[in-house]
Amino acid sequence: MLVGCNESQACLGYLMKPLPPLESPRFILSFDFDGTLHDPAATPTVPTELFGLLERLHGEYGACWGINTGRNIEYLIEDLEKSGFPFFPDWVVAREREIHLCDPEGSWSAHEDWNSRCARDIERLFTTQREAMERIRHDVVHQTGAQWFSFEGEPAGVVAQSVEEIDWIVSRVQEHARAAPDLSWQRNSIYLRFGHRNYHKGSCLSELAKMMGVETANCFAIGDSHNDEEMLDGTHAGMNACPANAIPEIQQLVRSSGGLVCKGVHGEAVLEALRHYLAD
Ligand SMILES: [Mg+2]
After folding, report:
1. Assigned CATH class of 5-114+199-277
2. Tens digit of pLDDT for each residue in 95-138?
3. 3-state secondary structure of 261
């Protein structure tokens, strides 16, 4: 499946491409976007210095890089251009579970095998666990002011009104999910998306590493929030980091897995972590 970004790129009057393809990547670099690479309050939103460093790591270290995000790919690509990226990532993990690969011409295609398996497993899960999901939905709708959403390709999710409210919702979800052990959820700030426990930022990173023949020890990951937990627990990447603005739970996780809690925030932390692990 081709993602409809070429059309929007054409509208923007340019065609962005990735860096030249690597014959055999030696490292994989996985970056969370919102709150990590990208700070909407900063100017520029992504430090310009990062682009040169990525190019150097790509050329000299064989580092294949990508963005591992909760956003859908169209929304991410829009902001890559706005943030001044001069080239595309080699890959994107979107909605914390779908893998997309960029070809040398800048066209995106889905990793069909992984993405269709993921969609199938989620569909099966939500069919077999209808009762547990209904109990969760009932609590959210009747006991909170949060918004419940469900549409094609996104079977269930929540937008809460506050962090306190989402904390309460997660506690109820944990209770109901005992009856549905394959059910998982990805949380980021006041947003929560339900899915299957086999698909998350971490398992997507490992799938990419397997495809490219890169060892876990040579995988780097950095993120700041709940939905980065699986990517940063040491299972899927041997080099883990978080920015100083990461939530306390992530800082604790990174520390306990022997990773780097950066002094800098957002994109500055990304530069700091890459220099610490790879390009000092
Ligand atoms: Mg984030």
Report:
1. alpha beta
2. 999 999 999 999 999 999 999 999 999 999 999 999 999 999 99
3. strand
